Structure to design on (134 residues):
């Protein structure tokens, strides 16, 4: 299990020193984003990522998905022939807006696909009666 405090410290280090250390860009997993009348749906492809290694946050109209994909192979002496799977930290930010019901956001990770349901706030029409005045 990830110690998120330690992960946040590593993340801060990567963000602060990335230009000087010439790290490759942080991996951005592919997403699908669509909406229905009731909600926005975000699908994030995270094959090989465990539930405890990913975080989902919503702040100021932006949904942020981030975490780490671990390399589970313990072989230190490997001779690669093809390398197409990215390991290490990942992050994806999706602008949604602030017209959502933050308390009802739900997510699930199933078969390598993270699905996040973001319900829209429902605004109903209401006529305001004018009270007696002068």
């Amino acid at each position: 299990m990830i110690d998120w405090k330690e992960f946040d410290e590593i993340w801060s280090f990567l963000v602060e020193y990335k230009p000087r250390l010439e790290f490759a860009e942080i991996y951005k997993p592919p997403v699908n984003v669509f909406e229905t009348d009731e909600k926005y749906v975000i699908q994030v492809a995270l094959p090989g990522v465990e539930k405890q290694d990913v975080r989902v946050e919503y702040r100021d109209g932006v949904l942020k998905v981030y975490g780490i994909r671990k390399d589970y192979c313990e072989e230190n002496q490997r001779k690669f022939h093809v390398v197409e799977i990215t390991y290490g930290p990942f992050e994806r930010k999706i602008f949604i807006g602030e017209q959502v019901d933050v308390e009802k956001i739900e997510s699930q990770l199933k078969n390598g696909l993270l699905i996040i349901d973001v319900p829209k706030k429902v605004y109903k029409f209401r006529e305001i009666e004018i009270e007696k005045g002068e």
Summary: The helical segments are 4-21. The domain at 4-119 is CATH 2.60.40.790 (Immunoglobulin-like).
